[in-house]
Amino acid sequence: MKKLTVFLASTAAALALAGTAANAERATDGDLKILFWQAVSTLNPYLSGGTKEIYSSSLTIEPLARYDQTGTLTPWLVTEIPTVDNGGVAKDMTSITWKLKPGVKWSDGTPFTAEDVIFTWQYCTAPDGGCAQKAQYEGVKSVEALDPTTVKVTFTEPKYYPYSAFVGAQSPIIQKAQFKDCVGAKAPGCTSANFGPIGTGPFVVKEFKPNDVVTYVANPNYRDAAKPAFASVTLKGGGDAPSAARAVLETGEFDYAWNMQVEPEVLATMIAKGKGKIETAFGTQVERINLNWFNPDPALGDKRSTKEAGPHPALKDPAVRKALSMAIDREVIDEVGYGEAGKPTCNIVPAPDIYISTTNDWCLKQDIDGANKLLDEAGWKKGSDGIRAKDGVKLSFLYQTSTNSVRQGTQALVKDWWQQIGVASELRNVAASVFFGGDPASPDTFQKFYADVEMYTNNFDGTDPEKYLAEWLCDKIPSPANGWQGQNIPRYCNPDYDKIVAELAKTGDLAKRAELAKKANDMLTAEGAHIPLIHRGQPSAISNTLAGVNMNAWDSELWNAADWSRKK
Amino acid sequence: MFNYTLRRLLFAIPTLLVISFIIFALLDLAPNDPTGELPLTIPPEVREQIRASLGLDQPFFIRYLLWMQQFFINEPLNLLEKMTGWQIGDGSRMRILSWATRSPVVDLIVERLPQTLWVVGLSYLLAVIISIPIGVISAYKQYSIFDQIGTFVSMVGFSVPTFFTGVVLIVIFSSWLQWFPSVYDTNHQVTDFASLMFQIKQMALPVIVLTLYNTSQIARFVRASMLDNLNQDYVRTARAKGVKENIILLVHVLRNSLIPVVTVIALGVPTIFSGAIITEQIFRVNGLGQLLITAIQGADIPLVQTLTFIFAVLIVLFNLIADVLYGILDPRIRYD
């Protein structure tokens, strides 16, 4: 009887498959034209780490599992997501076992096996390779093949969130046969492999002109015989965001344009032409103003913004930190600079849903009077110039950010609101490649933080905030001793916070993890490590003739390009 | 003349060495970093390893000497091998690798040359062809309606920046009239008449923008130079002798007026190779100009260094060519 049901089920499945195959056929919809205004430099994401390289390579190489548009982990090259319940993850959380889908082939027709998965780990962790995604393989002790379709990943210590290696667009599997002579220091020399990785994905690289254009054709060995619908993909690069939006929304020359950071009113006039639309996916990006907890006074020389400089004379007062946040009208910042691509937030962990806290939502409403009252009560008196001061310390701040028209607009708005509560600010912007460059010799990096407050966006990969929340630990404060490396940019330090994060790393239960993450998130905002402003989305322009796009902020935006098709 | 040329060429060597050192030092002192454009989710220790894998942990002089070896020895040898098919040594020389693409810089430049030469070069050629007659007529009929209009258009073309004219043309001809594409297809290959028409169409807008700009410049120069000569004594003598007006204009005056113009045109040739950064960006022509600007933004130092040095070589070379041409065209000037 059981055999019969299996038989029936498989016939039904075969019929269903045949049914879809009749509707859609591979490579019948012509050329898909995608525009990335930041041009793609290489197609090996392990050698670049840039978002554009991760997205463009995701059309050819794929991870074992990826996140769908809701942030749910979805099996991709495996049969199921391993969990403790189905035995895929060891009870002590020290290993995870992936079962590969049988019959998957590389685009050159050779079988995809556990050896390729093991090789990918060896490739990225090889010394002198400079692998940009090494953090994905952190804590991995060994990767071994139990049989050709089973891979066991063992961790050095219990890992309560084991889905990092081989998960998501940052960690795709590359072919051992193609890259075996390109390990470590030899990696950059393999230009033809880096420019045309063989993959399991829906498309194969046909031609690549670095920093210009990539041409792909449909993969003849793709595991779904009916996909992809498009015969080829042209991924053009160059120019700027507004002209890329115009090419999709106004002239209709392109089907899809990525990263449409364009002023809302400019986009609105383009959308009015009726050729396309903007869709936004919200991930975990938050635009925030970091407050410097150490004294950045230039008179302190090399000591400024370090522990030796002592606490910030004005920002050490919790009343000042809170008043600065109360004075800001996040709705207005959103409307002017972000439109559909942003929403006001008071959290540093703004998503996924289970981590969203509402504790600090008082900040969503601007309260100038309240902020003034708070400062009055704390003893900050307005002087003749309208600037508050106490014990000879003036509330006058240097406010820096990277050069970007939206950021400069936000700076001007915030400066005005702070003026209204008696806080003066001097605005400054630094070129992004310098600000985020991390050169220890430069005084203008965001890590050195030679300013009182600074604004930028940060986020975390995937859906788990554990590693992200660990950035605010006391020992992650940048200092000359660690070459200004360290992600605790506000220089926040609270032993109670460290305890919560340590507990999070030892908790396996998802509900409990969410509770701890919320507690940590609330603590950061309430204590004023930073002022969260806008939960930023990823807006992309999509032509009205394109079907099947499912905007995804948790993985590559092109994650389901196999399902894209031309509307008839 | 030959001695002079040889002397100048020898002088160029130390000049270029000093230039290469200055470029390298300036780039090294610049505070941007190749990992600056990466997402912040990549932790600092991984960034440090990326920098080390690029060779950034080496001291300044070692990196400079390495670049010199790669540029002056390895790359020419490699080029020679490719052109002749010979094998020199074991063939495994370190080539100059771009940091962003991790591929040989020279290959990138070779790949970009065609579109830059086509678009920027063609616009320069057109500008020369158009501007000389405009300059001649403007000067001959000074203060006429033609001269007034010519002056006005030149002023507009010269003072309105290309990022404005480019966008205006896109809005009119691509968005509104839909005559020309706004994005240049670098993969397009001319095989038949239809594809040639497409190539002309996609080149039209960027070429118009650059031609307008270059024409304005050269036409003003031709006009000024013509005016200088029209008032010379030899013109009066020729007229007194009864030489026909068009022979005076086109043989006597034009030939003498072109001497400084040829110099200016020769000096402008290197700018064809350095591309037109803004116009290339607007129309996504993705030639050498776009390559340079993305390399600068991404702190891709080997690529910026090599490109700027090649530009420096071209500028030094065309300065020499201009000087030599001057000597050939004008018998009054002798260098020896």
From TrEMBL, chain A:
GO biological process: peptide transport
Keyword Ribosomal protein: no
Domain Solute-binding protein family: 73-473
Predominant place of localization: periplasm
UniProt entry keywords in alphabetical sequence: Signal, Transport
TM spans (from-to): none
Subcellular location: Periplasm
UniProt GO cellular component terms: ATP-binding cassette (ABC) transporter complex; outer membrane-bounded periplasmic space
Record-linked InterPro entries: Peptide/Ni-bd, SBP_5, SBP_5_dom
Signal peptide region: 1-24
An MF annotation (GO) of this entry: peptide transmembrane transporter activity
Similarity section: Belongs to the bacterial solute-binding protein 5 family.
Name by which UniProt lists this protein: Peptide/nickel transport system substrate-binding protein
Native source organism of the sequence: Allorhizobium borbori
From TrEMBL, chain B:
Span of domain ABC transmembrane type-1: 113-322
InterPro entries in alphabetical order: BPD_transp_1_N, MetI-like, MetI-like_sf
Name by which UniProt lists this protein: Peptide/nickel transport system permease protein
Family matches, as Gene3D superfamilies: MetI-like
Ranges that cross the membrane: 9-27, 117-140, 152-173, 193-213, 258-278, 309-329
Superkingdom of source: Bacteria
GO cellular component: plasma membrane
Keywords per UniProt: Cell membrane, Membrane, Transmembrane, Transmembrane helix, Transport
Pfam families to which the protein is assigned, alphabetical: BPD_transp_1 (PF00528), BPD_transp_1_N (PF19300)
Cell inner membrane is among the record's keywords: no
GO BP annotations listed: transmembrane transport
PROSITE patterns reported in the protein's UniProt record: ABC_TM1
Keyword Transmembrane carried by entry: yes
Membrane topology listed for this record: Multi-pass membrane protein
Similarity section: Belongs to the binding-protein-dependent transport system permease family.
Localization annotation: Cell membrane
